[in-house]
Design goal:
CATH topology of the largest domain: YefM-like fold
Strand order of the largest sheet: 1-2-3
Distance between the termini: 24 Å
Structural class: alpha+beta
Oligomer: single chain
Order of helices and strands: HEHHEEHHH
Number of helices: 6
Number of strands: 3
């Protein structure tokens, strides 16, 4: 799931409603955006989705991976196919 899709799926709730329905919000499979006076103050995200987001953040710290992605995008844009063997070799597979 992408960050944009998480934001689109999130249900805005005010602080009082969040307090009154916290157990329901926690059990929900959808994220919730908690608002105070109409402004975002917190975000409730299901555990598995949060793990996915943290893993993506870790991947973004890998400079070699980012360079490989940029190279692959450049090759793809230039009409070149990115050999799967090279990708698998980089991934250690």
């Amino acid at each position: 799931m992408t960050t944009k899709s998480i934001l689109r799926q999130s249900k805005p709730v005010n602080v009082r409603e969040a307090q009154a329905t916290l157990s329901r919000l926690i059990r929900s499979k959808n994220p919730s955006l908690v608002l105070s006076h109409g402004k975002p103050v917190s975000f409730l995200v299901p555990y598995e989705e949060m793990l996915d987001l943290l893993e993506m953040l870790d991947d973004l710290k890998d400079q070699r991976l980012l360079e490989e992605i940029a190279r692959a995008r450049s090759e793809y844009t230039g009409g070149k196919a990115v050999p799967a063997e090279r990708l698998f070799r980089k991934m250690g597979l």
